[in-house]
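Ticket opened by: R.M.
Priority: normal
Category: complex prediction / small molecule

The reporter submitted a protein together with pyridoxal-5'-phosphate and asked that the result be attached to this ticket for the collaborator who will pick it up next week. Submitted input follows.
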Amino acid sequence: MSIADNIKAIDQEIARMCKHVGVPVANPRLIAVSKVQPKERVLAALEHGHRQFGENRVQEAEERWVSLKKEYPDVQLSLIGSLQTNKAAKAVELFDEIQSVDRVKLARALAKEMKQQNKTLPVYLQVNTGAEPQKGGVLVKGLSELHADSLSLGLNVVGLMCIPPSGDDPSLHFALLKKLANQEGLSKLSMGMSGDYALAAAMGATDIRVGTAIFGERDYSG
Ligand SMILES: *Cc1c(COP(=O)(O)O)cnc(C)c1O
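Result attached by the on-call engineer:
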């Protein structure tokens, strides 16, 4: 299957799952997660017309996308990985939205940079729905406070993002994220990856973040 076929197959999988669950067919935004993938695969997606991409590291994204964004100026880049405050300036420069805001210190650094660069990027608050110590994201009990702080700093908070613990039933985490978004009055839900995007879409995801199901396995060896 080509990259173009893989992208088409994702729509079909979502349609099948929505019918199976008995909900209207969803049409979430597809963020193609290009981290670690060889350039020719990314180019194939671009040539197919895909324009929404996600990266989880600022430096890697910079190496790839500074030049590609010149060739494809309508590309939209989402930062989906943990961000250190000392990289906030670069992140605001390069990305079109930040989905991994998870602490007030980072919210403050981003707000300052956006002011400096005269930008108002949409941001998502990442929630650590499984309370995993090694994972980024604000704990559920800290979400309301982080949301309020982010708003008072002037951030344009649009939604929530989560990465369910591997091994858990992801539907529990998707349902929790949706409930939290409702409580917070937020409309965007970034949830679902290659293994569970169809389920996430059927449960209300507005954004799905898909890497291997589009590009194939990532090769970390070289
Ligand atoms: C890598 C990554 C993805 C994509 O994972 P796949 O399983 O390859 O689809 C999605 N979200 C985040 C935050 C990631 O780091």
